[in-house]
Amino acid sequence: MNTQISLGVSDKGLPKAREFKPSDWGELSDWLNTLGAPMTVAPIDASQLSQCVVQATEVGRLVMTQTMYGAAARIDISGSCGSPTVATTNISGHSTPKMKGQIPVMNVPGQSYVFDLSKCDHHAEVSKDSTQVHLIFSPKLLDEIALAWFGEVPDRSTWKAKTSFGSSDASWYAGLQYVMRLIEERPSPLNARTVRHIEETLSVNLLENWAKQSGVDLNAEGHRIVPQVVRLAEDYITSHADEAPTLAQIAQAANASVRSLTMNFKKFRGSTLGQFLREQRLLAAKNALLAADQEQTVCQIARSLNYTHLGEFAKIYRERFGERPSETLKRSGAPKSFPQTH
Predict the structure, then answer these.
(1) 230-242 pLDDT per residue, tens
(2) Keyword annotations for this protein (predicted)?
(3) Is 122 exposed, middle or buried (CB count within 10 Å of its CB: 0-12, 13-18, 19+)?
(4) Do 195 and 319 have their domain in common?
(5) Domain identity same for 75 and 158
(6) Element (H, E) at 59
(7) Do 60 and 183 sit in the same domain of this protein?
(8) Which of 170, 206, 258, 269 is the most buried (most CB within 10 A)?
(9) What is the pTM of this model?
C-alpha cells in the first residue's frame, strides 16, 4: 500500500501558500478558524507537543489548506447553518472519518471525503504521518456553480452529509493535480479568468462526485435543465445581434468564462455559440429588411447591423433564406439597391 502520493507540485507543499507552525494545539485550532475552517485539533496523546505545519492559500472564494499533523490527532468540527462544505484528501498517512450510521473506514493516500458542515458535525482521527489537503467551499459558491452548470441548485437535503469518494486515479484527484500546477505556473496574482476557471473546475468536480455518492446523476435527462449561463447568453445575443458582439462580450454578460459558456452551449443546445450568434444576426437582418422604409437600402441596413463585408453578407443570407437580401427588401416595398450576387 502506498504511504504517500504527490499532487505534482514542489516538495514544499501547496504552491504560493503562507506557512504557519503553531507552538501549541490551541494555536493551531485558532488559526484554522480564521480561515473559515471551524476545527479543533488535539493530539490523541495529550502529552504530545505540537509538531504541525500548516499551509494556506486562497483562490477567489476557495480556501485551500495543507496540514502535516506530526502526531496522531483527533479533529472535531462543529457544524451550523451556513457553514461551508469541506473536501479533504489524504496525501500521506491515513485518516478515519466518523460517518453517521456507518462503520468507520480508514482512508488511505489518494482517497477523499466531503462533509457538509451546514448539516452535520465532523469528527476524524489521523495518523502521526498524516498530511491532508482541505478545500473549503462556501454554500454560495457551490450554489452559483451548480446553477450555472446544471441549470438548478440541487436540493442537497437528500445528499449524504458525509461521504468518501475518489482515489488517486480518479477525476477528483486529477483535478487537484491540475489546479495545483496551474496555481504554481501562473504569475501572481492570478487574474480573474484563472480564478474563475479554478473555482468552476473544483466545484463542478466536487458536486458531480458528491451527487454520485448520494445516488444522484446531475447529468441525467431529469437534471438537464438549460443552465442560466446559456439562457443569459441567448438573451444577450438576441437583444444585441445588431452590434455583432464578440464571444468575450457574450461570456461577460452571462457571467461566465468563454470556455465554460462554449461547453455548456454545445452540451445543452447541440450547436456552437458562434452558430447561434450567426443565426440571430441573419434573422435580425431579415426582419430589418422586411421592416425597411422607402428610403433605406440593403447597404445601409447591412452596415447598421455591423456587416462590414457586404458580398459575404449577401452570400450567407441567400444560403440561409433562399433569396437575395435585395429580394427580401423588395417584398417590403422599399427600393432595391444592392449589387446582385450570382
Answers:
(1) 888 988 999 999 8
(2) DNA-binding, Transcription, Transcription regulation
(3) buried
(4) no
(5) yes
(6) strand 53-59
(7) yes
(8) 206
(9) 0.64
